Structures are given as structure tokens and as C-alpha cells.
Amino acid sequence: MLDNEEFVLENYPRELTQNPLKKIWMPHRNGHIAQRRVCMTNCPTLIVTVGLPARGKTYISKKLTRYLNWIGVPTKEFNVGQYRRECLKIYKSFEFFRPDNEEGLKIRRQCATSALNDVRQYLSVEGGQVAVFDATNTTRERRGTIVKFAEQNGFRVFFVESVCEDPDVIAQNIVQVKLGNPDYIHCNSEEAIEDFMKRIKCYESSYQPLDEVLDRDLSYIKIMDVGRRYLVNRVVDHIQSRIVYYLMNIHITPRSIYLCRHGESDLNIKGRIGGDSGLSARGKEFAKGLRKFLEDQNIKDLKVWTSQMKRTIQTAECLGVPYEQWKALNEIDAGVCEEMMYEEIQEHYPLEFALRDQDKYRYRYPKGESYEDLVQRLEPVIMELERQENVLVICHQAVMRCLLAYFLDKTAHELPYLKCSLHTVLKLTPVAYGCKVESFYLGVDAVNTHRDRPENVNVQRSTDDALQTVPAHF
Amino acid sequence: MSETQRTLTQNPLEKTWVPWMKSRLSQRRGSSVPQFTNSPTMIVMVGLPARGKTYISKKLTRYLNWIGVTTKVFNVGQYRRDATRSYNSFEFFRPDNAEAMKIRKACALTALKDVWDYFTREEGQVVVFDATNTTAERREVILNFAKENGYKVFFVESICDDPEIIAENIKQVKLSSPDYMNCDKEEAVADFLKRIDCYKLTYVPLDDNKDRNLSYIKIFNVGSRYLVNRVQDHIQSRIVYYLMNIHVTPRSIYLCRHGESELNLLGRIGGDSGLSARGAQFASALGAYMREQSIRDLKVWTSHMKRTIQTAEALGVQYEQWKALNEIDAGVCEEMTYEEIQKSHPEEFALRDQNKYRYRYPKGESYEDLVQRLEPVIMELERQENVLVICHQAVMRCLLAYFLDKSADELPYLKCPLHTVLKLTPVAYGCKVESVFLNIEAVNTHRERPENVDVDRDPAEALETVPDHI
């Protein structure tokens, strides 16, 4: 007998109906259909950072959390330092962290426990799949406590240790993220640095790095010297494998990512979605403007990527530099609605039009795609963007929204409504724990293609209600 | 830089937009994913005998070729067998056997020369240099060779001290090696162990300190641990990811198509129809067959299309739906019969016959696109153990081509009939295939390449190989 046989055969085959929103075929009854989601772990996963202060643990935690949420794995980070700040209210000095400070140790242990309780709440009750436990976790004893906690609750543990002895990197860390930290709000730079260095010293004496022999049964990745070297031990499942792959592809070399859409197209002017039309006259103007803009930016070794649709390629052609075409950057496939105006969609498919407004992220066009599908399609692009340095991505409205949501940590809810206007370049520069965004409108007019969510998303709404937010066009 | 924009034309086969310049059309091959390989890359294996180097070499080569990176293995042992008359004994490998050392070094150099040929004349992108390469000196020779020619080098070292794994290796692939053709099992094993000892004397593993500027991955005990140093580029990153996902645990992968569908009966391609009566019968038969097979922890995967899901429903077990397993998108030709395609798009129909692998349907996909789409499925199949994949004709051809190392030319013509399950079991360096027809009749949906693929052929010639339908 098949091991995973849970259902009585007499009930089979069950009738299938197609979910009207996502266009997924599901059995009539309530049976649970596992739709291929990224992480097929049944156990929730607890990622535990390990490392001295200023080794990039919080940077990694936040970035990893952002990535996992973007690909659809509900993830949350728990920063124990944050708990400590809430508990203590005021940070006096590094003395709090001295290994002989009993009072301090007690508080710190309490904070860790409190954080773990919240982890349990998130993973077991709130439906989270991954929790990132961001703390130094530098002693074997502390890690042992966490492993025990995970065992008791049926969580898998994966350690991420960051080891770095390069004084330049550490100094840069301190400048970028510690000086602006609430702990040092009332200090000047020099005092802050001095105190922080002493803080690190407090941890050094009791630091027990993950050991090849003693910890051989644990699952972990040791990141050495900001990614020059990795030690990976006992990856047990899909999500851990994806996490390792991601961590091995990110870097911290300063660079900028430029995102923009193709120049205005002939179909844009007519208010039609999708298709594969060429640039309008104004679109060509934009392309020329883009070339000038890039020249002024004076970017080192810029890579240019386009989709395989005519309008992005025409835009890139104007730049006079080599570019790479990615099919994955193609605009969302609107299926039966391709090349229609919103008015026509309302006329021929009013139900579809309403469903889309109800849940724009998950809505899949008949014989087409959803934003959710787009994100999956774009994952390899994001992975390669992480590997690269200076890149210009010339893409499309829905695609650009997905990419932007990744960099700016926007939710699935916000994503489909992000404003990505024609003829505007967004320059994203990683800074501290996030991304600085600069918006450059290149001064060439274009139609507005942004349709906001109307007030009435009811299937029975009037045509006027449905078309209330459609932008003007010819 | 010229002021005039180059005009774009759409390549009629792959439907990619390319600037209209005489020589440039060949450069951008129009695949759906940029290749990201500028310099040729040499993957250099390192390790004692029976550590899985050849297994890894062949598997990696198969994977890279499948995703479109032209790769070739150069096995120095093969060169040695060609150079020496016959294999006598382990004595050949003794480090004090000067005569043999000369031959072995010459073989390595000959192999390197062939590597150069492959990169230069055959435009290969990746070479896997499969040999023990256990001394720093030998690796230095390779590094210098690569440096002189502008090749990148990535080492893959396999370290294993588990005697059971080594014994299993020897049993699986050494006993049947040409070297031991005329020996009995015990003699072969004894000799091979002595051979390993010869290498142990001079083995210097990649050193964390001395070799810190090299790019490499060290695999410990068949994957329980990895050390990765200085990954330089995209292809090396992909290689590391692949190597970290493969395993050697015995298991089987079952591939089949959905049961016969309504559109199949009508000779129509694509669409999202349900099962025919015979298709439903197949689904039950499939359930019975899988139960008979008595498989431990079987995972079942389907596409998002009704016909595969209906098939899985009949099994009475949990299954996962993958959008990536959906049938190839025939774009404007969806739900047409071949006769209708010939009538409305005769040129497209001919182009497809000219190059079925690269041909992209208008507003649809090509087999080449399919492979890119299926890569995450293959990666997850490598991670998993026993899996049944219920999919579609073109999809199944792509997956099968990966497991059986079929070329892009052969892939679109692989036979994947309805109602037939293929059971793939990894064995030695390849895959054993068992084909099981579940005895429920179904239409044939396999269309062979016709003789005349010319754009101005007669309709009759075009439709010559179309299988029967209602």
C-alpha cells in the first residue's frame, strides 16, 4: 500500500472544479490539495544566526526574510537585541555585556526566552513557516537550549554562522549600522565606536564557533569573510537548500540597480494591455533620453537586461551597448484578455474583471498568469541580480512591480498597486539594512497606465463603478 | 556609436527580436535565458579512486548539456586504457614506477590538448577533467594550462573515508570496468584496493590555506558536508547548487502522461480538457500499478491542467500541483489539429519540422523554453527519492531527455505514448528504464518528422506523419 494513502478509495476520483480566481483545478469537496509552493516542508524551520557583533547577522536575517516572503514563504525575524532594548529602556555602556555581569546575563537570558516564545507563537499558531532567530548565539550552551526548544515544538533548526576577522569589514559595519542604532543615539561617533569595540570584546572570550566535529550532526552554513568561503553541513530539505543557494549568491559590494519600463508603446497609447507592439514616437524619445541619462550617471561595467518583447528591446537598442534578453522578464500574460482595453474586458469578462480587483495578486487571467506566477518566474532573475553589480533592467509594468516589491520589501497586497510609471527610472542602491530609491522622470510625456483598485469590487457592480479608475487613453 | 537605430526583425523560428545586421543574427542564439558564460570553464575533479569522481563528472555533464551549456567529459583513465596494451595490475600505479608515470603524465597532457581542441574548435563552454589530480604538482600543471589559454578553473574534490561507500562504489562500477574484464570478483576488489593505496601515498587534498585563492568545492562523505571556496561566476554558482542537491540514495522515478483526454481523441493539441472514458480507466489502472509497486513514501506530482489532476485523483493519495509541469504552450495553435495548423499556418508548421527543439509557437513556447521552465522540477527531483510525475507529452520528453542524456535533436521525438509508465532507476553511471504499458488502448499522439520539411511542400507531404484521430 502507498504510505501516504489517507483517503478511502471509494470516494475517488473526486469531481474537479476550477477555482475562479486562481484557475486551479480542485476536488469538489474540502480535501486539501497541496499546490506547489516553494517550501514543501511540513515542519516549520527555525533559522538561527551565530556570530560576534558586527558580523552581518542582522543584515543577513533581514535580507533572507525579505527573500523568503517574496517567494511566498511566510517568514519573520526575531531580533533579540530588540527585545533587550525594550526590556532595558536605556543602554548605558558595553559593561552590560560583560561576561561577569550577572544582572545583565539574567536579563539577556530572559530576552532570548521571550523571543523564543514569540517564535513558537508565530510558527505553531500564526501559520508562519520560517522564523529567523537573530542573536549572537555564540555559546554552545545557548545553541543547545535553542535546539531543545525546537525539538520540543517540532521545528527544524538551521544555523547561519558569520565569521569574519577583516578589521576593515567590521569597521564598515559599525559605521553603516551601529552608529545609527538606538543604543548610540546620544553618543558621538568616536565614543560609539569605542564602546562597540569593547562590546565585541565581551563576547570574544566565550565565543564557541560551530565546530566541524562537535557539531557534525547539526544543519548549518558557516559564512567566512563575507562569502569568500562557505562550510555547509547536513542540508536536510528543500527550504534549507534554497536558503544556502541564496546566501551563497548575495554580496555586499556597493552597486546600483536601475529599473525602468520600455518606452511608451503603440498599444499603451490605445489603452490596450499586453501584446508585442513597438515604441511610439514618444517612446523613442524616452529611449534617447535614457541613453543620455546613463551616460551622465557614468556607471562602471553596466549590464543591460531586457525581456524578449519588442518594446523593451527597441528601448535597449537606442543605448548603443550590448544587452541580454530574458524571456522571464516578459510582461504578465493576460491570456484571453491580451491586447484588450479595460473597457473591453469589462464588456466581455465582467466577472473576471471583478475577481481581479478582489485579489489582484492571486488572480490569474484565463489561459494567462497571475502576479503570483510572475514572482515564481522572476526568481532566477532576482538570484542573478543578487550576483551582479551594476544592472539596468528594462522591463514591463507588472514585472517591474514584482522586482520593486522584492527590493523594497512590499507585501503581496501592495505589490500589484506599486506605481511604476512610463519614462521613469528607479535607481536602487543598497544601504544599511535596506534600499535607497531615487526616482528619475526623464521629461518625456507618456500615458498613465496605472489603474487603482476601484471602490466597488463586487461582481454585481455597474460598468461605471468598474471603470471608475481606468486611466485616460485614445 | 551610430545615431540610427537598428531595425528589429523577429527571427521566424525562435520568435526572438534581433537587430537586422548580417552577421549578428548568429551571435544571440535567442534562448530564453542569457548564458552567462564568457570564458570557457574547466571543472577539475580531485580525489582518490572510488570516490565518485566519474559519477559526478557524468552527471554534471548531463545536467549542463540539458540546460544548454555545451559540456564534455575528458576521462584520463580512458586515455590510459587507450595508451597501454592491457591492464596488468595495481603495480602500474605505484608511485615508484617511473615508466608508468611517464605514460600517465603523457595521457594527462594529451587529454589537455583535446580540451583545448574542444574549447577552440568545437566551441564548447565547459569541460570536466575527470582524473584523480591528487597532487599539487598535477593541479599546478592544469592551472598553468588554463591560465595560458584564458580558461576559468573550478575544482571539485570528493573526500570519503566510509569503507562501506567505497566498497559499494567498487562493486557498482569497478568490477565491470575494462581493467577487470578477466578477473574474478575477489581478485578485482583486492587489486583495486591496492591501487587506491598507491594514490594515498602522494595524495595532497586541496588545502584551506595554500589553495585559498583557488575556486573549489570539497564534498565530504557523499554530501553530508561541503566546503565552498571563491565561487567566481554564475555557472560555478549553478554547479555548486546542483552538486549540493544530488544524492546517491537508491530510489525510482516514475514518469507518465495523463490518461487519454477528450482533445487527444480529436487529434487536437494543447487545451485543458478532461479525461476520456479510456483515460479514466488508465487512471484506475495506474492506481493499481502503483499500489503493486509497493513504494515507500511515494510523492506524486501533477501539472495545473485538469487531465493530469484527474489522473492523480484516481490514485487516492496526496499530490502536488506544479505549474511548471504544464504542457508546452502552443500559442495561436492551441486546440488545433495538425491539419488545421497546416491550413492556417503552413510556414510555421514547416519551420517546426525544420528545428523542433528551438521552434517557438507564435505567442507560445519552444522545447528550449520548456527545458528552462522545468529546471526547478529537475532540481527538486534530484533532491527527492521516490516520485511519480504525471505530466504531458512534450514535458515528459524533456524530463526523459535529462535522465537518459538525449540531445536537443533527439529530445522532441522521444516516444512517450499515452497509458505507458516509464520507471527510471539510477544504476552505475546512468539510468535503467523499464517501460510498462498498462493495457488500456489510447490514440497515438506521436508525429514523426516528415521527409519534406520545406516551406513550400505540399499539404499531403506535411501531413504525412500525422497520427490517426477522430
Strand content of chain A: 15-25%
Distance between the termini of chain A: 64 Å
The most extensive contact between chains is: A-B, 64 and 67 residues
| The CATH fourth-level homologous superfamily of the largest domain in chain B | Phosphoglycerate mutase-like
Known CATH architecture of the largest domain in chain A: 3-Layer(aba) Sandwich
Helix % of chain B is: 25-40%
The helix tally of chain B amounts to: 16
Adjacency order of strands in the biggest sheet of chain A: 5-6-4-7-8-9
CATH domain class of the largest domain in chain B: Alpha Beta
Q: What helical percentage do the residues of chain A reach?
A: 25-40%
Tally of discrete structural domains of chain B: 2
Number of strands of chain A: 15
The level-1 CATH class of the largest domain in chain A: Alpha Beta
Strand order of the largest sheet of chain B: 4-5-3-6-7-8
What are the secondary-structure elements of chain A, in order, as H or E? EEEEHEHHEHEHHEEHEHHEHEHHHEHEEH
Distance between the first and last residues' Cα of chain B:
59 Å
